[in-house]
Amino acid sequence: MINRIKFPPAILLVSCLAAMALSCKKPDIKGEEITVQQVDVAFKSDNGLIKIPTGDSSYTKNDATVDIPLKIRLSDAAPSRFDIGVTVNTDTVAGMIARDQIPGGVLLEQDAYSLPNLVNVPFGREEATFTLKVSLASFEKYYGKTLALAVELTGPTKNNKLDAAKKIVVVQINTASIVPVDQIHYVYYPDNGKSIQVPAVRGKNYTVGPGTLQVPVNVSYTSSAGPSFYLRVKPNTDTIAKLLAANGLPGTEALTAADFSLPDSISFKDFNNSLSFPVTVKLSALLAHPGKKVALAVDITDPSIYKIDTTKKTMVIVVDASGLKYNPYSGTALQLPAGVGASVTIKAADFDLGGEGWGYHETTDNNIPGTYRPNEGVDIEGNGANIGFTADGEWLKYSVEAPAEGDYDIAIAITTPNGGDRGLHIEVDDVNQTGRIPFTNTGGWGNWVYLHGNLHLTPGKHLVKFVWETGDTNLRDFIFTRKN
Description:
Layout: H1 9-24, E1 26-27, E2 33-34, E3 40-43, E4 49-52, E5 60-61, E6 65-74, E7 82-88, H2 90-98, E8 105-107, E9 113-114, E10 118-121, E11 127-135, H3 136-141, E12 146-154, E13 161-162, E14 168-174, H4 175-178, E15 186-188, E16 196-198, E17 207-209, E18 212-221, E19 229-235, H5 237-245, E20 252-254, E21 260-261, E22 266-268, E23 274-282, H6 283-287, E24 293-301, E25 307-308, E26 314-320, E27 334-335, E28 343-347, E29 360-361, E30 380-381, E31 386-387, E32 395-402, E33 406-415, E34 422-428, E35 431-432, E36 437-439, E37 449-457, E38 460-468, E39 474-482
Parallel strand pairs: 3-13, 4-14, 8-12, 15-25, 16-26, 20-24, 27-32
Antiparallel strand pairs: 1-2, 3-6, 5-6, 6-11, 7-10, 7-12, 9-11, 12-14, 15-18, 17-18, 18-23, 19-22, 19-24, 21-23, 24-26, 28-39, 29-32, 30-31, 32-38, 33-37, 33-39, 34-35, 34-36, 34-38
């Protein structure tokens, strides 16, 4: 016979609960049973600091980033899988820099690093690691500085707690100790140390457009060509003021920032370590300084990556307007004939480049009808057939070149239905050589006649200027005929 022992219900309940508790225990990664219900979470650091490369020197330098492992330490093995939030505390670093607690410190810019938003801690682990990735370009941009970032842990899930005294770590990175100086990309003016003289002694280093002068300026960077990036350019008035004060630019006056324009930014293309950008000067600014050269200075600044060479960041441009007076529309001055009796013709619509006050003077801004040279203010009809809608005092300039000294007959094709005392004249290098050439009604707009004048030219280039003393007269072309 088996004797059955009966236990009171209360004892049975306690025994069952104890058995259940024992059966729910789980071993950690060491095989030890985990009995805690929650853990404290803290950064592993040296009193809240991680210095790279001194101190904790574990980092990995890749082609584009420097990867820094950040370690989290738990007070015990994790009783279950849980997450920890990660954020950045900019106020901490800003305050330390302001108090000079990080000499040479620079707060890492938001686009210069990446961090996970959450860190997952598996069951049974006593540590977790995540990676701070810092753009290698920021090491070059702030070379010689200490990059700094405060990383903060937030909101561990499943009732785990933050150690308030160790939830923030300040990462300090010595840029010069990680990137060798010979690997730094320095952005600079390759022509620094000598000003850009316009026009150049050899070759043409400018372009004249309607009312503007464009000067190309070259920029480059050292070391191997890398990914695309941008930088900015800005006027530097102080440099010109100092040069003028020291008589370093004799016979020269400074342009104001309103006298020229610069691009908002300039960009290097992928794996191309040189570029050229335009400095656009108003020709009216040159006319405002007759008999003088003008100067301006331009700085390169704020590259999105890499570093500016501070010894080669300023370019001085000096413009001598007297050297810019020949700007033929075709690119080459009209070559006048050498043989007596030989002739050459130029269309009136092919006046010089430069725009108002330079290649022409026009009393209205718009080109009627605008099918030929539409960006010019001169009224050109018939797709370049003739100049129309003229007014008193308007003029056109043409660059010509004479092979030898001699006289030329200039035949001027005009038409007008208007009578009265009408006239025009021709200047050579600002000297009126023909005097007033009178004319009257030619018999209607469709009836062209040639007026004649005499020009005496020396060998070389000249500016021939046609002047309407009275308007309402159309102009078609000029014929130059060698007389002697």
